[in-house]
Amino acid sequence: MIRAVFFDIDGTLLTRQGTIRKSTMQAMHSLQAQGILCGLATGRSPMKLPHPLNNFSFDAVISFNGTLVSFRNQLISEHHFSQQELDQLADFFDRTHRQALFYTKDTQYGSFTIRFGHSYYIAKLLTLLPDWLPTGTLRYLLQKWSPNRRKNRYKDLVKRPVQINQCVLFCSEKETAAIENQFPEFEIVRSNRFSVDIVPKGINKKSGLQEVADFTQMKLADFMVFGDHQNDIQMIEAAGVGVAMGNARPEVKRIADYVTGSHQVDGIFDALVHFKLLANKQKKNRT
Fold first, then answer.
1. Which pLDDT score is estimated for 168?
2. Helix (H, G, I), strand (E, B) or coil at 18
3. pLDDT tens digits along 75-93
4. pLDDT in tens, 215-269
5. So where does this one cross the membrane (predicted)?
6. For the chain, how far is it from start to end, CA to CA, in angstroms?
7. What does the alpha-carbon distance between residue 164 and residue 166 come to, in Å, rounded to a whole number?
8. Helices within the chain (DSSP H only)
9. Cβ partners under 8 Å of residue 95, min gap 6
10. In what order do the strands lie in the sheet with 37-41?
11. SS3 content of the chain, % helix, strand, coil (to 5)
12. 6 contacts 225 by C-beta, under 8 angstroms
């Protein structure tokens, strides 16, 4: 029996326009009315969730790809890099003049370019850019001509007395394998074509889901999850029911229990009806 439903945000809960469909909001309210928990599982920071999600009270939030987990506003799990790990990352970023951003649960340090790209309205604009946009070329230009380029830029940043939970690195999809080979001691996950998220080894959305399961005395078999990108694969494989959105990456669809419609239509609502968590008669109220 499904007792909790968790959703990725970008490409799942949110449309390309950065909105949430009314049918999805209706579905989540209906789930909670039945006593089913609703949660988020995202690579995003818990500091600034997209505006459309502020109108719903999620029971649990897995953020930074599992390094921070909260249940009803209580932090139940936190993972962070060691100083040695941060020094290793910073050394590579300084030597190769990369654009990177370090996140704590309260703030962020590093690349203005990435911070700008993560702002709400710019993030909405980026979803409209064509797939052929050469992100590798853009990364190369930023390496060569960044106005913030200076010696030991990141080494100085990671000396701050804070606990860093996640790092985001501007990185084209073609570079993913090279970055994974460079840092086998970390988890390297991708949720978009512009950057990769770097977190401590063994931490991911699946481990975050397990933290919630342990805290609530549930089993992973009690969870249904929705996702669309590579950083959703492990939790989709682990959950009792793993649903891939119609717009999901091919590798995500291959491992999912069910493929529903896209985030641009009523994909979430329809999957919940399919698995009988919502009644068919509720369809007439969706938009």
1. 94
2. coil
3. 999 999 999 999 999 999 9
4. 999 999 999 999 999 999 999 999 999 999 999 999 999 999 999 999 999 999 9
5. none
6. 28
7. 6
8. 22-33, 83-96, 112-118, 120-126, 135-145, 153-157, 176-182, 205-216, 233-238, 250-255, 267-274
9. none
10. 74-78, 68-71, 60-63, 37-41, 4-7, 223-227, 241-244, 258-259
11. 40, 20, 40
12. yes
Copy the structure tokens of residue 51: 């505006």
pLDDT at 122 (0 to 100): 43
Q: Are 58 and 40 in contact (CB under 8 A)?
A: yes
Structure tokens at 75: 């932090």
Q: Coil, strand, or helix at residue 11?
A: coil
User: At which residue do the structure tokens 């909260």 appear?
Assistant: 70
Residues of the chain under the 70 pLDDT cut: 111-150, 281-287
Closest CA to 122 of 111, 114, 133, 130: 114
* Whole-prediction pTM: 0.86
Q: Check residue 17 and give left, alpha or beta (phi > 0: left; psi -120 to 50: alpha).
A: alpha
Task: Give the integer Cα–Cα distance in Å for 37 and 22.
Answer: 19
d(CA 2, CA 260) in angstroms, rounded, equals 18
Q: Which residue has tokens 């979803």? A: 127
Q: Is 140 helix (H, G, I), strand (E, B) or coil?
A: helix
> And the tokens for 171?
């990185």
Phi, psi angle pair for 186, to nearest 5°: -120, 165
Q: At 62, give phi and psi (nearest 5°).
A: -100, 110
* pLDDT score recorded for residue 139: 45
All structural domains of the chain, each given as residue ranges with its CATH number in brackets, are 4-79+204-285 (3.40.50.1000), 83-200 (3.30.1240.10)
Place of tokens 């459309």: 52
pLDDT of residue 112: 60
